[in-house]
Design brief:
The longest helix has 21 residues. By secondary structure, the protein is mainly alpha-helical. The chain has a domain of about 55 residues. Helices cover about 35% and strands about 0% of the residues.
Length: about 120
C-alpha cells in the first residue's frame, strides 16, 4: 500500500482502536438476579431430514476395489456436525472489525446482491 498523505487519511487511527478497546474493556454487565433456564432447547439431529430413507443402498459411493456400496443409516446415527457442512460459514463481526473496510465492502456487496434479486423479482 502506498504511504501517501491521501492514503493515510483513509486509514483508521490507532487512537480510535484504542478508545474502542478501552470502552469495551471497561463495560460491565448487570448481574442477573434470577437465573432463568434456557427457553429453547436445541433438538438433537438434523433440522432437515436426509434425502434418502434408512436402508437405501447408495450406489456409486464405494471407493474400494472389492467393496460394496454403503447403506444409508438413520439420521440419528450420523454426527450433528455433518448436517451443517454445506451451510455457509457465518462470521460474528466484533465492533472493531465493523469499522474495517472489509466489513463495509461486504455490506455493500450484500446490498447490491439484494437489490439485484429484488429487481429480477419485479
Amino acid at each position: 500500500m502506498l504511504r501517501t498523505p491521501c492514503a493515510l487519511r483513509l486509514l483508521p487511527s490507532r487512537s480510535l482502536h484504542r478508545s474502542i478497546i478501552a470502552r469495551l474493556a471497561t463495560t460491565t454487565t448487570a448481574p442477573e438476579t434470577s437465573p432463568e433456564p434456557p427457553s429453547t432447547v436445541t433438538p438433537k439431529g438434523p433440522s432437515v431430514p436426509s434425502s434418502c430413507k434408512e436402508g437405501t443402498v447408495l450406489k456409486g459411493l464405494n471407493i474400494l476395489k472389492d467393496g460394496k456400496d454403503p447403506v444409508a443409516l438413520a439420521d440419528d446415527a450420523y454426527p450433528d456436525w455433518l448436517w451443517s457442512l454445506l451451510d455457509p460459514p457465518k462470521k460474528d463481526w466484533t465492533p472493531e472489525e465493523q469499522l474495517s473496510r472489509k466489513y463495509l465492502r461486504k455490506l455493500t456487496k450484500e446490498k447490491i446482491k439484494a437489490n439485484s434479486i429484488a429487481k429480477r423479482a419485479r
